[in-house]
Amino acid sequence: MSQEPTWFGQPRGLTVLFLTNMWEQFSYFGMRALLVYYMTKQLLIGQAQSSFIYGSYTALAYFTPIVGGVIADRYLGKRKAVIIGASIMALGHFMMAFEALFFFALAAIALGNGLFLPSLPSQVGDLYKRDDPRRGWAFNIYYVGINIGGFLAPLICGTLGEVYGWHYGFGAAGVGMVAGLLIYLAGQKHLPQEQPRQVAANDDVRKGFDRHTILLLLGIGLSVTVFRAAYEQIGNTVALWADSGVDRAAGAFQIPMTWFQSLNPLFVMLLTPPLLAYWRRHAHKETQGSLVRRMALGSLIVGSAYLLLAGVTAASGAALTGWVWLALFFLVLTFGELFILPTGLGLFARLAPPHLGATTVASWFLVIFSGSLTAGLVGTLWSSFEPSSYFLLLAAIAAVAAILLRGISTVADPASK
């Protein structure tokens, strides 16, 4: 692999996967930025039911990869799974332009995502030898691609949806999905060769997953499930609060409510380089336990972001809260997110045995499924609480996740068994 031509010091295939993922995330976040507003304002679905549908959809979108990862590893192969999945998702995004097809569209996107989502990031690890030091940083680079798409999506899809009509925003999301598929097809020669699939169905299924590894993955999964119950509110109840409880005036200009969804990915792009530089200098000290402690700190920081919102909404009372506070919230939340989410994905990929990369990564998406479903249930409580009390609840949920992760870190390293 060291003789292979590179771009920016990384295998060229990483750029292909980066761009494919960027446009897929553009389509996902573009649709997500509009979803809860579309249900409450256009379809006239009540807030509690809309929040539950939102949580159920995001949960389903991360449940299907559990089956999709197995199908990719054993039958289709990762490349075919990405191509088929992306095609189905593009169809689903275009179906969102028709009100009568709303639930069918959500189902199509979730089904396509099941094949696409575990198969693409698992190819990132395949670009490197297992002892290649660049392998760990590749997932943080890949995570930036997610957030470039997430940054552009609310600005483009959100603006089209708010100003010109919801269906234009959903159509733009479909165009983004098609762009990602075309990039992936054009970059095939730079992607890693796949191993024969029959090997994955035999002896290697039982290799690598020792008892300690299974318990570690389960513990991290449970903790991140709790964490995401709070984190996922940024596209759900926090988005509703941005519409009804925030003063969005910037001089004579009224900031579109969907634009605030771009702050999270924007801050990811700005904060990732300095954090990566810091972690790279301390890489020689990294262990599984230290990485789990990093995740615990991230959850605590996210909790402090919700604590900030609890304080400012309590101080504002019935008055609207200035939008600067919402921007500060996203800055703090994103800083904490970078400690936990890419680190968790990297840990799951690192612990994957040979030939089971997509299946192991799919188990990470099982965590996102359970967390999203829990977030949908927590979101139904929004109308029953004052904003300050609700945000305080979210801070407490994130703190519980931090405590769980800190406890797991003490037994995460094999030497400490």
UniProtKB/TrEMBL annotation:
Localization (cell): Cell membrane; Membrane
Keywords assigned by UniProt, alphabetized: Cell membrane, Membrane, Peptide transport, Protein transport, Transmembrane, Transmembrane helix, Transport
Topology relative to the membrane: Multi-pass membrane protein
Database matches in Gene3D superfamilies: MFS general substrate transporter like domains
Membrane spanning residue stretches: 22-40, 52-71, 83-116, 137-156, 168-187, 214-231, 259-279, 291-311, 323-349, 361-382, 388-408
One Pfam family in the UniProt entry: PTR2
Domain Major facilitator superfamily (MFS) profile: 13-413
Domain of life: Bacteria
PANTHER family: PROTON-DEPENDENT OLIGOPEPTIDE FAMILY TRANSPORT PROTEIN, RESISTANCE PROTEIN MDTM, PUTATIVE-RELATED-RELATED
Family: Belongs to the major facilitator superfamily. Proton-dependent oligopeptide transporter (POT/PTR) (TC 2.A.17) family.
Protein name: Peptide MFS transporter
Organism name: Sphingomonas caseinilyticus
